[in-house]
Design brief:
By secondary structure, the chain is of the alpha/beta class. The protein folds into two domains: 63 residues, no CATH class; 297 residues, Aldolase class I (TIM Barrel), CATH 3.20.20.70. Helices cover 43% and strands 12% of the residues. The chain contains 20 helices and 15 strands. The strands form three sheets. It has a nine-stranded mixed beta sheet. It has a four-stranded antiparallel beta sheet with strand order 1-2-3-4. A two-stranded parallel sheet has the order 10-12. A hairpin with a 5-residue loop joins β2 and β3. The radius of gyration is 23 Å and the shape is globular. The structure holds iron/sulfur cluster. The site of iron/sulfur cluster has 13 residues, from α18. Its cofactor is [4Fe-4S] cluster. This is His-Xaa-Ser system radical SAM maturase HxsB. It comes from Massilia litorea. Pfam families: Radical_SAM (PF04055).
Length: 482
């Protein structure tokens, strides 16, 4: 519900335990008692001075006599929330090859078993580097995805060296990430990555039996090889050279605590409890590996409780999805998680240069192609950045992700969240179905409810921990495109 009289505009959300959270137009929040809400709606002057100052500081009440400054501050706070989208493409995903040795049931990209026709040409790779360099963003993150990009290490070297040369005067900050199974990692690769500050991101789905079931490699021990890769990278590149991500399948649902414990045992201080994406191969195999949103919620809540328990034992480990949500709620500066941006970051802050020379607005959008839906192509890698950014696809995505439209206008979480047009396209074959019909909307309403319930029940230590979680970390930054 929206409220506006002698107050500034704000929304109220009732949590499952009956607690009321007020959210102002800047995204600031306050937990309210019912009598406080009544007072806010009917006679805000009755608040004691301290509470009144608190309500004014969080943009629920006007600050009499200083409203000009307040309006500017309000505009600045709103702009800060959109900064990552407004700054120009900053995350550039290059897919050097679709080859991969795994046969994961939930694979989103229909990996290829051979190089023929499934790897980027050097000319297309060079064109991708030119597009990246045309971006206005001061910080450029270049992520190599696949398939398994280490199978075309030569293309990674070519792009990293080319972009480093382009930045010879050091005007931009370049960050390189390679997302890989790490099965092909060698000492030579580690030496190159160390010399060029390249960090690695891998997939680890939990303990051995689960990882091998989710991510099989014909005739080989997938789990052991990934662990060997992690050990080699830590030894040769640095202790924090590798972050890991997990994907939740139906087989994972029984093992939330064991998955968290595995991450802690291996010394990771972050775990991203990712639901299955309904793209590519995963969509085809949904009946076998999928589950309902309710089942995911039960899994997630058990895993999150285990993470909180570890923190209480003095082992600092954070959950990345909740950290993204906490960043939205607690921080003035948005970490830029693409799926929750309005307008969407897909095609604006993120571009994907696929192995076949086409450019897509997000990793998920290129995955749709593997099941025959090429509607989200923005153009060819040889088109200029300006042409790509003015493509019909991008304009459609921006339009479909405005929270000012349709369902989101009545949602208390619209200052943190947005419709996800790429998800909508995957689920319904069009980017603009009403937000409430989408799985994305239901999941995020629940996640924001969960976050506020955690904050409402938090003691001083937990509150401090959630503020730490709200600051973007390496995995969280890497996750912002997914
Ligand atoms: S997508 Fe759903 S949860 Fe997100 S702002 Fe819109 S209505 Fe709210």
């Amino acid at each position: 519900m929206h409220r506006q009289n002698r107050t500034l505009p704000f929304d109220v959300r009732t949590l499952t335990d009956g607690a009321l959270v007020g959210i102002s137009a800047t995204g600031d929040h306050l937990f309210l008692h019912q009598d406080e809400l009544d007072c806010l709606l009917n006679d805000p002057d009755k608040f004691p001075p301290k509470r009144k100052a608190e309500l004014a500081a969080r943009f629920f009440l006007p600050n009499h006599g200083r409203n000009v400054g307040k309006e500017r501050l309000l505009a600045a706070r709103r702009a800060a929330k959109r900064e990552t989208v407004a700054a120009g493409p900053s995350l550039h995903i290059i897919v050097p090859t679709l080859q991969c040795g795994h046969t994961c049931q939930y694979c989103q990209v229909s990996r290829a078993q051979s190089d023929s026709g499934f790897s980027m040409t050097p000319a297309a790779l060079d064109a991708a580097c030119e597009r990246i360099w045309e971006s206005d963003a001061d910080v450029l993150t270049v992520e190599f995805q696949g398939g398994d990009p280490l199978l075309r290490f030569d293309l990674i070297v070519r792009a990293v060296e080319r972009l480093t040369d382009m930045n010879h005067d050091g005007n931009k900050r370049l960050r390189f990430v390679v997302a890989s199974t790490l099965h092909q990692l060698t000492e030579e690769m580690c030496a190159f990555f160390r010399a060029h500050d390249v960090v690695l991101s891998t997939s680890l789905d939990g303990p051995e039996h689960l990882h091998n079931r989710n991510r099989p490699v014909p005739g080989r021990d997938s789990y052991r090889r990934t662990l060997d890769g992690i050990a080699l990278a830590r030894q040769r590149i640095g202790e924090h050279a590798v972050s890991a991500l997990m994907t939740t399948t139906r087989a994972s649902l029984e093992f939330p605590e064991q998955i968290v414990d595995e991450y802690v045992r291996l010394g990771f201080n972050e775990i991203f409890l990712r639901p299955l994406s309904i793209y590519g191969f995963a969509k085809r195999n949904l009946a076998r590996v999928g589950y309902s949103q309710e089942e995911f919620q039960v899994f997630y809540e058990r895993a999150l409780q285990r993470i909180l328990w570890w923190n209480q034992q003095g082992v600092p480990v954070r959950e990345v999805y909740m950290s993204i949500v906490m960043n939205k709620i607690l921080s003035t500066f948005d970490a830029g998680y693409v799926d929750l941006q309005s307008p969407t970051g897909a095609g604006s802050s993120v571009l994907v240069y696929n192995y076949d020379g086409w450019v897509y607005p997000s990793d998920e959008a290129r995955m749709l192609v593997e099941t025959g839906d090429a509607s989200l192509r923005m153009g060819r890698v040889t088109d200029s950045l300006a042409q790509l950014l003015s493509s019909e696809t991008r304009l459609q995505l921006i339009q479909a992700s405005e929270t000012a439209a349709a369902d989101c206008t009545s949602c208390a979480y619209r200052h943190y969240c947005a419709p996800n047009p790429v998800d909508s396209q995957a689920q319904f074959g069009r980017p603009d179905v009403p937000a409430h019909q989408t799985e994305h909307c239901g999941r995020h309403q629940w996640l924001f409810d969960t976050a506020f319930a955690l904050l409402h029940g938090a003691d001083a230590n937990s509150e401090e921990m959630f503020h730490v979680w709200a600051r973007p970390s390496t995995t969280q930054e890497a996750a912002c495109d997914r």
